[in-house]
Amino acid sequence: MRIAAHGLAIDAPRGWDARISRRGPEVAMATQGQAAPEPTLHPVLHAANFALPEDRGDFGSGAVELMSSPHALVALLEFHPDAARTPLFSDPGMPRRLSPDAFSPQQLQRTLQGQAGAQRFFSEAGRAFCLYVVLGGFTNRNAVVPQVNATLERLEIRAR
Fold first, then answer.
1. Dihedral sign for Cα atoms in the order 151, 152, 153, 154
2. For residues 107 and 116, what is the distance between their CA atoms, to the nearest angstrom?
3. CB 79 within 8 A of CB 27
4. Over the stretch 15-46, which tens digit does the pLDDT of each residue have?
5. Chain centroid offset of residue 58 CA
6. Spatial contact of 157 and 129, defined as CB atoms under 8 Å apart
7. Residue 109 and residue 51: Cα distance in Å, rounded?
8. 10 Å Cβ neighbour count for 54?
9. pTM above the 0.85 mark?
């Protein structure tokens, strides 16, 4: 299943659900000691190897609570264009492969029993992003991370 919107596209692997939506005003720059930029809407891509609920937060709240050991959730969140020039987003290009060792329960936005996460900030095509991946089972990461990597390889980011 291919979906595309807002300069993002993904050919979701068989058995994966994917959605692209837009979120509200970005305030991340204010947390870096700078004035908040003018409100804009930024896209968020969610892909999961289980059915995504309609009501879910940017970092997967509403979905991560439904996950079990074989599940994975990929969230790609865009930030304000000005953020692409900051040190936080200085890594060039989205990582297309993550190691099972990149995942840890300590990298979750909210700790849920047995789960693990990985988070990377980067810029690509002049745009600033956070890639956030949650695994339903930390102990099952060696089996699930190859599925995540296959999904990341199918994700496209274009200049706006």
1. positive
2. 7
3. no
4. 999 999 996 654 444 344 555 555 568 999 99
5. 8
6. yes
7. 21
8. 7
9. yes
